[in-house]
Amino acid sequence: MNTLATAFTLAHRSEVEFGATVTSRPHFFYGTNTHAMHEAFDVRSDDGHALSIVDNVALAPRVPVTVGDRIGVRGELIPDAARGPLVHWTHHDPAHVHPDGYIELGGRRYA
User: Within 13 A of 20's CA, how many CA atoms are on the CB side?
Assistant: First the structure.
């Protein structure tokens, strides 16, 4: 598991775990690859990185975040995504192939 600072220096996809503050309201969309409903919102990590969180809500419950909420995140960082850095795989993997991720909010883990 990498910190965000370490993961950004690797310049490739890597598993990360970090704390952050939510900076945008969530929006929902269907994934072009998965054809599943996703929730996305922006955060600023505790070490100052601005990035997006993309969560598959077909596999994990919707996370009821609001701007200003403090969250914990575990997932896969894509540092050079087309829209800027993002973290996905913030849910369990039903096939048990990919490391499980999560989003924590208010003492509850959404996975």
Answer: 29
Superfamily assignment of 4-110 in CATH? Answer: Nucleic acid-binding proteins (2.40.50.140)
Dist. CA 22–CA 46, nearest whole Å: 11
Here the tokens at position 21 are 């503050």
Cβ proximity of 18 and 47 under 8 Å:
yes
Sign of torsion over alpha carbons 85, 67, 70, 107: negative
Please state the domain extents for the chain. Answer: 4-110
18-60 pLDDT per residue, tens: 999 999 999 998 877 777 899 999 999 999 999 999 999 999 9
